[in-house]
Design a protein that fits this description.
By secondary structure, this protein is α+β, with helices and mostly antiparallel strands. 52% of the residues lie in helices and 16% in strands. It has helices spanning 11-14, 33-37, 69-78, 81-87, 99-106, 108-111, 117-129, 134-154, 166-171, 207-229, 236-255, 265-272, 278-298, 307-326, and strands at 2-9, 23-30, 44-49, 62-68, 94-96, 178-186, 189-196, 199-202. The protein has a five-stranded mixed β-sheet with strand order 3-4-2-1-5. A three-stranded antiparallel β-sheet has the order 6-7-8. Strand 7 (189-196) and strand 8 (199-202) form a beta hairpin. Helix 7 (117-129) runs antiparallel to helix 13 (278-298) and helix 8 (134-154) packs antiparallel against helix 10 (207-229). It starts with a strand and ends with a helix.
């Protein structure tokens, strides 16, 4: 395998490693000439070496993943966090490097974009998972109680949502989590839905079904919230990642760079170890989501990567590899 770069990744890059942290490496490789010509280049290859079977997170454990040059640049163009983190890894984290990697780093301005969907998406996933925004719980409760009351009043399991007073449904839409929406479900056919906390219920569905759906959502959110308040059942490592990537996103969008080790590494490590109060972490993630969205709106980074440069760079590198293999 022709190595373009090998980078010490994960907690050792971020500055959040502990005595039990394993070793995580990310690489970029140049495929062999034969694989290029036969169009059988693997997008990525990986290996995980455990010190002892069944034992997790030991210092001797190694997690290594290598991306083909074309795949790596594609990930960068998509704004994927793993590729961006690799691009900003400092020299101290480089296990191996090459002239190709140096050229990629010099051309950062061609490769960076304001596409922070990967950053924001991860943070939102964790926020939803733990009902971090308390208004979600309140919205689900309000919808559950409304449909339960409507079903009790009508006493008919066949009564449908569109039989209810439309104004009362619209009155529920008082926050960002609840709305009435009409969408085209099939060509030429539109359907109206009541939506709360991301779950849609067709106006053609029964009130009883709607009550059951939103009751389950509320109970689920409520259970998570109660566990969170008592610091039980929380994936602190996942929440620490959410805080980490949000800070990275803000720095990238505003300053066009990411600093490693992270300036906020002590705080991220504290969250990772479960030492920070849950309420504090929840508020922090809420605030960071707002910051990321504001930074994206104001960012001077381009909307798209220079895909023409990427294509030309890959073609040139692969062409030279093929010629070299023919000699």
């Amino acid at each position: 395998m022709n190595i373009v770069t090998i980078i010490e990744f994960g907690s050792h890059l971020y500055g959040t490693s502990t005595s039990t942290s394993d070793r995580d490496y990310k690489s970029v490789y140049l495929p062999d000439a034969r694989d290029i010509l036969l169009q059988r280049v693997k997008e990525s290859v990986g290996a995980r070496v455990k010190s002892r079977e069944g034992v997790r997170n030991t210092p001797d454990e190694i997690d290594d993943e290598a991306y083909s040059l074309q795949r790596y640049l594609q990930l960068l163009a998509e704004g994927q966090t793993v590729a961006i983190d690799m691009l900003f890894a400092p020299d101290a984290s480089l296990i191996a490097s090459s002239s190709l990697w140096a050229e990629i780093r010099v051309n950062k301005p061609r490769l960076l974009t304001k596409r922070s969907a990967a950053f924001v998406g991860y943070c939102r996933t964790q926020a939803n998972k733990y009902s971090i925004k308390g208004s979600r719980v309140a919205a689900a409760k309000q919808a559950a109680e409304f449909f339960a009351s409507a079903y009790t009043d009508c006493g008919d399991a066949q009564v449908r949502v569109n039989d209810l007073d439309a104004s009362s449904l619209i009155a529920l839409c008082t926050d960002e989590h609840t709305r009435v929406v009409t969408i085209e479900t099939t060509p030429g056919r539109e359907e109206t839905f009541f939506e709360c906390c991301g779950r849609k219920v067709s106006f053609g569905n029964t009130v009883k079904a709607a009550a059951e759906i939103y009751s389950r959502i509320y109970e689920n959110y409520g259970a998570r919230a109660r566990l969170a308040q008592s610091n039980e059942g929380i994936d602190w490592k996942a929440l620490s990642h959410a805080v980490r990537v949000a800070h990275e996103a803000v720095e990238l969008l505003r300053n066009h760079t990411i600093t490693f080790p992270l300036v906020v590494a002590p705080m991220v490590l504290s969250i990772k170890l479960g030492e920070a109060p849950y309420d504090q972490v929840a508020r922090l993630i809420e605030d960071l989501l707002v910051d990321v969205e504001a930074a994206a709106a104001e960012s001077t980074l381009p909307d798209e990567a220079d895909r023409q440069w990427i294509d030309d760079f890959v073609i040139d590198a692969y062409e030279r590899q093929v010629i070299k293999g023919a000699l």
